[in-house]
């Protein structure tokens, strides 16, 4: 069972979502409520995974499949946040060194 690895991925994502730079960027673009909602969802899933880790032998095949897919989702989300962080650092290096709505002329691929 891969509950421990999925829990680690969830905790990594949770920490990334609490990054000061991400919060600042979300504040600039008025995405603070969405960020908080995502963090709440990740925390809820973390609690499920903690419970699943304790009851590991009781998980059905469907539960095990769900946990494995969650791990993949958390890794994908963490990769996306890494890319987001890279763009944020690039924007900070622009003249003036500030991230503003005006400097958001980049597009995600």
Q: Specify the overall morphology.
A: elongated
Sheet with most strands: none
Q: Order of helices and strands, N to C?
A: HHHH
Radius of gyration: 17 Å
Helical/strand content category: mainly alpha
The N- to C-terminal Cα distance equals 34 Å
Low-confidence stretches: 103-109
Question: What is the mean pLDDT?
Answer: 80
Tally of extended strands? 0
Protein described:
It is a single chain. It is built from 4 helices and no strands. Residues about 105-109 have low confidence and may be disordered. The chain is elongated and about 55 Å long. The chain has helices spanning about 5-15, 20-30, 30-55, 60-90. It is mainly alpha-helical and about 110 residues long. Helix 1 runs antiparallel to helix 3 and helix 1 (about 5-15) packs parallel to helix 4 (about 60-90). The termini are far apart. The protein has one domain. Helix content is about 70%, strand content about 0%.
Features:
repeat; Rx_N; 109 residues; nucleotide-binding; 4 helices; mainly alpha
Q: Could you give a short description of this structure?
A:
The protein has helices at 3-17, 20-28, 32-54, 61-92. It is mostly helical.
SSE layout and pairing:
Blueprint: H1 3-17, H2 20-28, H3 32-54, H4 61-92
């Amino acid at each position: 069972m891969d509950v421990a690895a999925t829990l680690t991925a969830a905790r990594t994502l949770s920490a990334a979502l609490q990054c000061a730079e991400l919060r600042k960027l979300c504040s600039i673009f008025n995405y603070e409520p969405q960020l908080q909602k995502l963090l709440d969802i990740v925390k809820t899933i973390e609690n499920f995974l903690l419970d699943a880790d304790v009851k590991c032998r009781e998980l059905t095949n469907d539960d095990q499949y769900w946990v494995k897919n969650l791990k993949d989702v958390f890794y994908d989300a963490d990769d996306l946040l890494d890319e987001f962080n890279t763009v944020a650092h690039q924007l900070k290096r622009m003249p003036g060194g500030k991230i503003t709505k005006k400097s958001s002329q980049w597009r995600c691929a």
